[in-house]
């Protein structure tokens, strides 16, 4: 089975994906880490040295590579992956997909703490961050909402989210 986790930045895709993979004895792949490994650069360095368009091209290329070559994996995407080119069609055709959806307040408080490491929000003033996230999610929802399942992660522990995912897989 090919399982894909998607959602906005800081929605818990990697942490949930890792735990789900451990419990199912599946390989875990984090698309951002995969890109960093292949490009031998951090995501922040790719954005600043090569620009976002280059990043998006590589993101699509590596998404297709993973989906076509590997079997039985849990793949956590980057927040923007489903929203570019035909990526969401590729995901829907080849995998079972889950949209992890925390509340706006949760995303805001997580991203306020971690924003420096994320190129898309690093430059946003803290006072404008909440509004930026709300608008960005609104624009992206048309893609996120196509996932096979939408899981609200609010007030759930990592294990509870994993349990919900497993219940959809069996
Ligand atoms: C991005 C999200 C990031 C990373 C890049 C762009 C986005 O991944 O791919 O900074 O467009 O939302 P995470 O969702 O893992 O932070």
Structure commentary:
There is one protein chain. With 170 residues, the protein is an alpha/beta fold. The chain has one domain (2-155): P-loop containing nucleotide triphosphate hydrolases (Rossmann fold). It is built from 8 helices and 5 strands. The chain has helices at residues 13-24, 31-39, 43-50, 52-69, 87-94, 104-114, 126-144, 158-169, and strands spanning 2-6, 27-30, 73-76, 96-101, 149-152. Strands 2-3-1-4-5 form a 5-stranded parallel β-sheet, sandwiched between helices. Helix 3 crosses helix 4. The model has no long low-confidence stretch (mean pLDDT 97). Shikimate-3-phosphate is lined by residues 9, 32, 43, 78-80, 118-120.
The total of helices stands at 8
What is the number of domains? Answer: 1
Q: Tell me what the CATH architecture is.
A: 3-Layer(aba) Sandwich
Q: What would CATH call the class? A: Alpha Beta
CATH topology: Rossmann fold
Distance between the termini: 11 Å
| Distinct small molecules bound, one entry per kind | shikimate-3-phosphate
> Which value, in Å, is the CA radius of gyration?
15 Å
Strand content bin: 5-15%
The residue-averaged pLDDT reads: 97
How many strands appear in the DSSP assignment?
5
CATH homologous superfamily descriptor: P-loop containing nucleotide triphosphate hydrolases
Q: Which H/E pattern describes the elements?
A: EHEHHHEHEHHEH
How much helix, percentage-wise, in residues? 55-70%
Structural class designation:
alpha/beta
Largest sheet: 5 strands, parallel
How are the strands ordered across the major sheet? 2-3-1-4-5
The general outline is globular
